[in-house]
Amino acid sequence: MARMAGRRLLFAVPVLLAVTFGVFAIAAASPFDPARAYAGSAGLSAGDRTLDQLRANLGADDPFTVRWWRWLTDAAGGDLGDSSSLRQPVSQVIGERLGWSVLLCAVAFVLAVTVGTVLGVLAARRRGGPLDRAVTAAAYTLEAAPPFWTGLLAVWFFAVRLGVLPPGGLTDTGSDVVTADQVARHLVLPAAVLAISQLPWFVLYVRQGVGDALAEDPVRGARARGLRPRTVLLGHALRGGLLPVLTLVGSRVPELITGALLVETVFSWPGIASATVEAATSVDFPLLAALTVLATAAVLLGNLLSDLLYGLADPRVGFDG
Question: According to the model, what pLDDT value does residue 74 have?
Answer without folding.
Answer: 81
